[in-house]
Here is the input.
Amino acid sequence: MLGAFAVGKTSLVKRFVESIFSEKYQTTVGVKIDKKALDINGQQVNLILWDIQGEDEAQEIRLSYLRGASGYILVADGTRPVSLDVALAIHEKAKETVGEVAHMLVLNKSDLTDEWKLDDNTVKELTEKGWTVITTSARTGQDVEKAFTVLAQKMLPA
Amino acid sequence: MSSSNPEYGRKSSREDNRQEQKQLDELRRLLLNKEQEQLKDLQRLLNNPELLATKVSRALPRAIAIRSQRDEELAKALGPMLEQSIKRSVSANVRSFANVLFPVMGPAIRKSIAETFKNMLQSFNQVVAKSFSLQGLKWRLEASRTGKSFGEVVLLHTLLYKVEQVFLIHRENGLLLQHVMAEAIVTQDGDMVSGMLTAIQDFVRDSFGEKEAEIETLEVGDLSVWIQQGPHAILAAVVRGNAPRELRRTLELALEDIHLEKGEELESFEGDAAPFETIKHYLEDCLVESETKEKRKGNTRLAWAVICAILVVLGVWSFSRIRSNCLWGNYLARLQSEPGIVVADAGRQLGKFYIFGLRDPLAEDPLELMREAGLNPGKVRSHWELYQSLTPGFEAITAYLDRLKSEPGIVVTAVRKQGGKFHIAGLRDPLAADPMEMLSEAKLGHEKVVGYWKPYQSFTAEFVLKRSYNILQPPDTVLLKVENKTLCVSGLAEMQWVRDTQKLGRAIPGASYFDETNLAVRELVDLKEKIEGETLLFSIGTTQLLAGYGVVLERLKTHVRNLFESAGSVDRMVRIEIIGHTDALSDRWGWEGRKQAEREDKGLSSGRAQWVLSELALPGISRSNFSARGAGGEEPLRAGSVLKDRDFNRSVSFRVHISTIPGEHDR
Here is the structure.
């Protein structure tokens, strides 16, 4: 899980995964490991989720945590368009570290319709560029499961 | 090449010169065309680096081999270059170089460490050796018992630890490949733990700038995580307590083995941990723990067991000693009351009983009495001298035994006195006298003697003869005799008995040979008498039977046939002598005439005999069984000179010889 500070990565994870570590890890070690078991076409897939501390001015993302990753979810906050830019920037860095692996974009906080700042065109442009974009709400749980499932499907060999 | 000579100005000469040159070129082309082509080829080769390299590469290995055999110039020249290239290769990619060296370096480093550790242990030994305490003494004992060095034993006793969990984690992505844990250990989800462990390593590396540094141990209180790094995988062991350095070696070995067995799978790992199920045992081998506490418990238990065993042994020993003393006393009393036994000395020496004395061979067996008394004869030293007791009880039995020994057909093999009775064993021919009947003669009660007689056949002549009479049941006219293992049968017997005897006589035990030479068969004797009683009379001067003697001849034929048939069935040979006679008329003439008459008589009598032979040699009877001769008037059947006697002497008479077939009596 990659993204800017406070886009809701942890909330997304928290809602649907099993966890044994406290959130304290993220602020100390910079990452928290969780596990999500999924059933993809009758096949049991365990996603080991590295919920990496969000990037902001003060803290750069630890790219070494990306090493060996099979895929990643970029999370942006739909109420803060700048977070999308951060996510796309992270994507570029991640590509350098791990190469082309499965990835997707999640636009979170869809429940905050009043404050939603991203227009449909932006999303459409991204989709045209080949991005998989899913709009979720960690609060209502909307499409969260779907997001993980889509990533898992992308990661599995065809 | 110069083409003209300036000294010649004339045109013709120049032309000549050119002409000459042209011809020379032509000649050169004709002569050296091939070589020129080759030269061109060589030039092309030298100018083209690609081509040259290909050619040189063919000769290069061989050239290097030859040069390096000759001297070390090549090695000297290449040395700096090789160093340079290795340096460059290492600085370009440290990891791949480390990966290559990993399987080699591990054992080499370990060996050197082990050597250092050994030296350290030895000096440690010396230090501890000086401290002489009860504990030290105990450990020293243990060291000598287990064959370990003293220092090792000390270390073992001071280290208490347990490996609770072992994780095998993929180095690249931190995914869990395999996870084992000791019994009764509650653990968190291995997948997440291994991920976090990897994250922490990354964190430490990133945070403190040591890019290639490896975390070896994480410690929290009593618990520590030992991390062993491999090229593709990490082994993490969760250890409670104070583990020895040996554990590091165990982890190293396991990780090396795993890389060796699953190297390819590790390199191409994409998330499916199933192939690593088979290497679980390497991880399980790492789940070690020190068992010091249990051992101690075991030792005290062992000590108690030893003490108990000693007590039991002591108890058993003293009980058996008291018991054996008691039994020994009873045994001595029994021996002293036994006739024919005199105890000279008895006692106990070095924990073993001994007894010496005299014993009549007919007395009770002291060893048997010992067994009856409940003592083990193997554990008592006994020595018995034999002597002849003069006690009254023994006189009677001695006399009885002497009597038995002198009795034919009886052999005494063993005599023993037991339970107040004499047990006599031996062999007895069924035809011998009954030993029990002899008891009363020896004035011994039947209740005092028990006989064990095995029937056997005595081969003494006496018994062979007895046996023969028993088996053959001969008639009164027959006499049996046994001489030199030969059963001789003589006398007269019926044919049936002779036939039976011929079979049975050869099967009598003790008689190796059978002789019936002197046994006559009644039926044959009758026929012989009948034949010999007949006389055939002839008319004067002829070989023709008198009238009425044809009947006699026929009767004779019947007798002869019967005789040969019967003789054949009892293995007898028959020879019939046919004797021709004349009436000796030559008496009436002078000496010359008598001579003449004698010759004539011989001829006539022989003719008569020959004629009868031809009549009697019936089909099936060989002529060789007959003999015919003319006696003339020399063997007159009747000596008288009356006419009737003379008639009788013109005849043929018979003599019959019956004999056994020679050599037949041999068995």
Summary: Chain A is about 35% helix and 25% strand.
